[in-house]
Design brief:
Length: 262
């Protein structure tokens, strides 16, 4: 078991600036987180609302970018497809444990044999503690405590205990009011790196937008490749992103402005 909290939380804050619009889209590769970035976070994952203009906006952006747009999210690819139907974009799902490339090819890490046991133990723990929600994700599992934030430390401690029982090949990933158990050596930065080695992303400059600790590896990948990283949110937590937008509504406006629609 490996706790990836320290790996994804940068040691110090860096300067944040309001992002300028890209001067040229033809050499850009756009990677977008979903919850907290394109859409507002809801009390539970199944209660999110997709703004009616978002799906056609993403479709127009993808066409303008020659298909070099991907969603990079903690959700499963199948869930993303349902949320954004009828649009089907390239997706890094479950933080990169699932990949769907621009040509429709699918790639996924094996499901860990201990994940079913861990999921059942988390469900039992959630049933005994009000305000907890377990979200199975196929290759990962998350436990949310947004409805009872006071339980955050207890949730993290319990997840560590459950995963520590001789379990190798899994990592614990804390996030915003959530703790997730996912395959080891999987993160959004690695997923974006894989996309950048495939068409139509090859040779393009990455622009990554996200809001959570899980997006920090993506910011690092973008920065290392001479790209741009935009953190969404008003909090002052440390980040490796070098630009910021205040909320998902501002993200949607900024993306529309990229197309000259604002």
């Amino acid at each position: 078991m490996n706790l990836v909290e320290d790996m994804t939380r940068p040691p110090a804050a860096i300067a944040i600036s309001q992002p300028e619009l890209p001067a040229e889209l033809s050499d850009l590769a756009l990677f977008l987180d979903v919850d907290g970035t394109l859409i507002d976070i809801a009390p539970s994952p199944d209660l999110v609302v997709i703004p009616p203009k978002l799906i056609p906006l993403l479709e127009r952006l993808s066409l303008k970018l020659g298909g070099a747009l991907a969603l990079v999210t903690g959700r499963e690819i199948g869930v993303v497809d349902t949320m954004f139907a009828p649009l089907k974009l390239p997706v890094a799902g479950v933080h990169g444990a699932e990949l769907r490339f621009a040509d429709g090819t699918l790639k996924g890490t094996p499901i860990h044999p201990e994940l079913a046991r861990i999921t059942e133990e988390l469900k039992t723990f959630a049933a005994e503690n009000e305000g907890l929600l377990v979200e199975p994700k196929g290759r990962a599992v998350a436990i949310h405590y947004r409805l009872n934030p006071a339980l955050g430390e207890d949730v993290e401690a319990f997840v560590r205990e459950v995963v520590d029982r001789g379990t190798d090949g899994l990592e614990i990933q804390p996030g915003k009011m959530v703790v997730e158990v996912r395959p080891a050596k999987i993160d959004k930065g690695r997923a974006i790196g894989v996309f950048l080695e495939t068409e139509p992303y090859v040779g393009r400059t990455p622009l990554v937008i996200g809001d959570d600790w899980t997006d920090e590896p993506g910011f690092r990948t973008a920065n290392a490749r001479g790209g741009r990283s935009i953190r969404v949110g008003r909090d002052k937590r440390p980040t490796e992103a070098n630009e910021s937008l205040p909320d998902p509504e501002a993200v949607r406006r900024w993306l529309a402005a990229m197309l000259g629609e604002i």
